[in-house]
Amino acid sequence: MSQEHIVSVRVYVLIFLALMVLTAATVITAKYDLTVIWGPLNAIVALTIAVIKATLVVLYFMHVRYSSKLTQVVVFSGVLWLIIMVAFTMMDYLTRHGWPEPNL
Amino acid sequence: MEATAVSTATESRENYLNINYGWKSWLFTVDHKRIAILYLASITFFFFIGGAYAGAVRLELLTPAGDLVQADTYNRLFTMHGVFMVFLVLIPSIPATLGNFLLPLMIGAKDLAFPRINLLSWYIYMLGAACIVYAALAGGVDTGWTFYPPYSSIYSNSQVLAAGVGIFIAGFSSILTGLNFIVTVHTMRAPGMTWFRMPLFVWATYATSIIQILGTPVIAVTVLALALERLFHIGIFDPKMGGDPVLFQHLFWFYSHPAVYIMILPAMGVISELIANMTRKKIFGYKFVAFSSLAIAIFGFLVWGHHLFTSSQSVYAGIVFSILSYILGVPSAIKTFNWTATLYKGSMSYETPMLYAFGFLGLFVIGGMTGLFLAALGLDIHLHDTYFVVAHFHYIMVGGVLMGYLGGLHYWWPKISGKMYPEFWGRLSALFVFVGFNLTFFPQFLLGYMGMPRRYHAYPDDTLWQVLNVMSTAGASVLGVGYILPMLYFAWSMKYGKTASANPWPASGLEWQAASPPTTFNFDTTPVVTWEAYDFNHVKELKEGNSASPQEQTV
Amino acid sequence: MAESHTIKHHPALKHHFDTMEQQREAGTIGMWVFLLTEIMFFGGLFLAYIIYRAKYPAGFEAASNTLDVYLGGFNTVVLILSSLTMAMSVYCAQTGKQKMLIVYLVLTLILGSVFLGVKAVEYEHKFEHHLFPAVGFYDWTHEPGHDPQLADQARIFLWLYFAMTGLHALHMVVGAGMLLVLIYFAWRGKYSPEYHAPIELGGLYWHFVDIVWIFLFPLLYLLGFHLGGH
Fold this sequence. Notes:
The complex is a heterotrimer.
Chain A lengths: L8 H23 L9 H21 L7 H26 L10
Helix pairs in contact in A: 1-2
Chain B lengths: L22 H5 L4 H29 L10 H37 L7 H23 L13 H5 L4 H28 L12 H33 L12 H34 L7 H14 L15 H29 L8 H24 L1 H7 L3 H31 L5 H27 L13 H34 L39 H10 L10
Helix pairs in contact in B: 2-3, 2-4, 2-15, 3-4, 3-6, 3-7, 3-8, 3-13, 4-6, 6-7, 7-8, 7-9, 8-9, 8-10, 8-11, 8-13, 9-10, 10-11, 11-13, 11-14, 13-14, 14-15
Chain C lengths: L19 H36 L1 H8 L4 H27 L2 H31 L22 H37 L9 H26 L8
Helix pairs in contact in C: 1-5, 1-6, 2-5, 3-4, 3-6, 4-5, 5-6
């Protein structure tokens, strides 16, 4: 049972600034139609930034970087299960005949 | 020896049952043992409601013609049977009663980590149950317990919304129970109670809690979407409006398939306890049995697509789900083989709990093996939505879960009530349950194989079909007697039963070192564990060492 | 988990725990396990979003374009700022700065209320334009320039928008209620460097709600941003 770790104000503020910069970045990149370069590029950029932001919040604001192994396992398994649910369902949709339908 | 929490027992010894009286002391209790009793009473109540629906279904099928009830009424009967039994009985059955009662005792804790949340979960359960009872009284639901849209969302004019709200609410009760158990196992174990010294029931309950935590929220949001679809007709599951009804099935079974393991895993935990303790042998392959519980919990999440083989799911996904379903048979088989190996050369005694354990072994093997038939892509096309499926899942849910539940209730009844149940009646009812169960459901395998579909109130006028259906209905009445008997003699034993000693079997496990019935905080001093799980030498030493203590002499 | 009953018990220690450390750990794990269920709860909707977006890209972009990126962006900033103030209140609780603890909790509550206010304005716009996806009310072609062919696809997006942001807003309301309780007890001086688990757990919950929004913002608002229009 580890002693409680106190994250310094400096770290909090730095993370906040990083989150602000990333928010600006995601808005700016979304302004441009990156799909002309590659179909899913807009989505990939937006989601990558969102994942980085979420990771920063989890690690520093929620102290997971300094938490017990158990907490880290819980966080990890949450993400893993979400991926399992999405991946196994997409496994059906993406291999369906004629999906997605060209037009509704 | 180390300080074990054996308190002196006298007739007027204070325990969790007699510490205070009156309805307030029960409805505002935070004692995990009393909450377990609250659950036990409510689950028994709903079990008999669900059973009454099943009785009506079986009566209708006595004759080929649809003469007893209309088709529409029949739809409501089997739906409400399913809703009551699945959501209000089987899911909470073992975790909320035996789990609640035993988990803290088994790991040497004073209570669960969050006693008030534990009580809250019972109230939430009752609130959900009230919604479902309302749905039943207001005409019932006719969609089948699976609530498939678009029928449930657009066309059905029955009480889908009320039942859906009930399931949504009852789900949170299940989540809170699981959360409480996980935290308790992690933080409340007595000194020396390492993970690999925990009884296998605790492992099984822990694995169950993982499923409750990860699965239940998904059914909650699915039912929510269904309710919104029904209220506002937003088209999310309506193919006419661009929605996809199969998405509902994915989300529904992402929970509802693992939910089968919410039901069966705790029963497996009970069986592990029964077999090890009634054969007085260390369980064969402790770690394998423990880890197979976790494996079932995890892999149980990867097979839901086998419910969608005929629902326009992609064949490629079907292949993967089929293979994974076969793999899931492995951890279940590990358990079964280990139980069987434990029986070998054990000093067995054939008291009621052991009879239930034997019943479980046989029925679970049949139920599990027929599951493999259904996991086969080609064969499932033939068997899908036939009585074969009905028989299969009843072998698991009734033959497995209820056998484990009843076996566990008999085994721990001395601990719960402080009284012994009448052994003769116990054995008799175990016999009734086993015979009645097989008579009810084995013919359904044959009917299903011959092509009788489920959910129809009439069937072709064929002598063989009717003979099998009559057998099934006759079996259901025997089964009914087998379920009513224990309720009667358990109630009887509360007043007239022989007083139970702290460890009447005698069995290993910390719960048997607390008094029968335990005091409110279970142990007078926190026990220190220095022995392995199912160490019967330790039980013997304990018995000899404490032979002077009064509660060992009461029987 | 030592058996030393000689140590004087903290008044906040519940009877069934042996030590404050054990109680704190139970609370933390409990909260994280609860958040796990929250992930799966929102996860069901995210799954629906992914499937329908893959199926109806055009309708999703068009419907996303009806959302106001600037209001959404403003709310993102507000919410992240509230996460900072919440983190700061945990810091103040840990270091025993009683007064600043209350200040930061109140700031968090104010920022959360601003978020909900903006959300209400946005919802109102949607109702004005008949974009709430209930049958009989929903009218995609109410606005000029909307391709009538995309009406059904856009409805599914808008349904997801309302379901996801609605549930998120509901979590914010619960969080606001929780903050009120925390403020009350902080004002009563209940929290100290030895005992401040409720502040920490409340913080975890608040940050989680923030994370949900971090994903909702790009998925819902930014999806159709490149189409212009606003």
